[in-house]
């Protein structure tokens, strides 16, 4: 009997009152459950206690989630952030080595927004700290005076490049996506390829050029109302399929190990 693939969902560390928490938005776990058809397993940001291989041994895929916090610029040799910038060093210490290890081990990966930026930084790329201050890009931030439905509604066109994962899913060459970020890819990491660009040239999606398994990062939020957008849904379904393939391969390996040891 096949079981649900176990899909790790990264978390942010947050102080709430007197206590520290590991938290993740409901929409990420819900999209894993309903669209990727996996069992979401939250990954605490406890790099001091668990190595990437401890985590990978337990999982069939990992969703690297979005977050209001920014990656500390020390990880991409960038200038210091403006005072008051929201950082999460415990999350950086967990996710950056974990992405490298997951891709190396052929564990399927989907990165969203901060998760997409983590993918680029993990492999040696850098970030614009404020895309809207560069001068050549539109403002990619949401209007936070609007309702959440408007904030996560279609914001700009995105052009899908031929030959990548997104094109392979049958997505049209141009789709509308939402946009809720102030940072963005400056230098694309070696080994990553640009899958899609906004009209202003900002990279909106990346994948591993020579990935052993599904490894896609997107700057926008396909988890948002995933079931009502066929393009967003196709991404989660493809990710879920890759996680199911790994779950099956791991079960086969376990059966072979058990019969060899019998
Ligand atoms: N802080 C980074 C990443 C933006 C991001 O991940 N936004 C998500 C917000 C909350 C959510 O929907 O989970 C940046 O500003 O570029």
TrEMBL record:
Keywords from the UniProt entry? Hydrolase
A UniProt-annotated Pfam family: Peptidase_C26
One GO molecular function term of this record is:
hydrolase activity
**InterPro entries named among the record's database cross-references:** Class_I_gatase-like, Peptidase_C26, PuuD-like
Q: Which domain of life is it from?
A: Bacteria
- Protein name as it appears in the record: Gamma-glutamyl-gamma-aminobutyrate hydrolase family protein
Q: State the species of origin.
A: Pseudomonas hefeiensis
Q: What is the lineage of its organism?
A: Bacteria, Pseudomonadati, Pseudomonadota, Gammaproteobacteria, Pseudomonadales
